[in-house]
Amino acid sequence: MNFHGVFPYLVTPLDRDGNLREDVMEALVERLIGAGVHGLAPLGSTGEFAYLDAPRRLEVAKSVIRAARGRVPVVPGVASTSTADAVAQTRAMMEAGADGILAILEAYFPIDDEGVEAYFTAIAQAADGLPVVLYTNPNFQRSDLTLPVIERLSHVENIRYIKDASSNTGRLLSIMGRVGGRMQVFAASAHIPACVMMIGGVGWMAGPACIVPEQSIALYQAARSGDWTRAMELQRPLWRINELFARHSLAGCIKAALELQGFEVGDPVAPQKPLDGAARDQIAAALRELGAL
Q1: Longest C-alpha distance within the chain, in Å?
Q2: Superfamily of domain 5-289
Q3: In degrees rounded to 5, what are phi and psi of residue 164?
Q4: In the chain, where are the structural domains located?
Q5: Would 211 disulfide with which of 14, 15, 205, 257, CB 3.0-4.6 Å?
Q6: C-beta of residue 103 within 8 angstroms of C-beta of residue 133
Q7: Edge-to-edge, what's the strand order for the sheet holding 77-80?
């Protein structure tokens, strides 16, 4: 199975008591698949994985897998501070029917390169052949994936993708040069997707695709066909969404936007705060400009 295209990072819809809103998740999955997304990635940053316990994370993954019904690949996030727990999560996701694993390292104490490499290698081995997507976000992670570690991990057979949210496009080019085609690169919301596609990326894994899926797919298709003039025509207005996310909290922005679009996804998990009225107005204006509201 080859991953490419638009993979929205799904939010986790919760009610006021913190229970998963499976009906809302199913409606969101139907909306995104109907729009033509190429895959679904629950439990990324937008899914607030860092605020959910292990049983809730597995419940979220199972909900998305059931709703997708095999129509597109589902690649849930696995994140932990310990290798043993990450391996256990990976096996549970596999048993639930995941099509791949989005591998994330949470760190409290700093981890050296050998420890980082061993962590991701253990997840790949536990995935038993399923494709693994490395996810690195140095803005939030205490221990990052360095270029030498990424190069070594690219030789692990089923570690086939990376989503690097460093916002450094030059780093992406360095990654591509080091991995020699063994590992493919997805753009993050911190990147300009058209530019990442131009240098050899294969798609976009990001929260904004939840709220502007058709626009995201149109951009991907233009880039994949090499129509860079059209791609940039589509990219410029889309970047307004990313600018808002840089100004406000990511999960808060996506959840507020989805609420405006009719999905009762609830507020971000406390102690995060929901967006105030002014921020919601800014998001509403941006969505209207894009024809997404």
Answers
A1: 49
A2: Aldolase class I (3.20.20.70)
A3: -105, 115
A4: 5-289
A5: 257
A6: yes
A7: 5-8, 203-206, 184-187, 159-164, 132-136, 101-105, 77-80
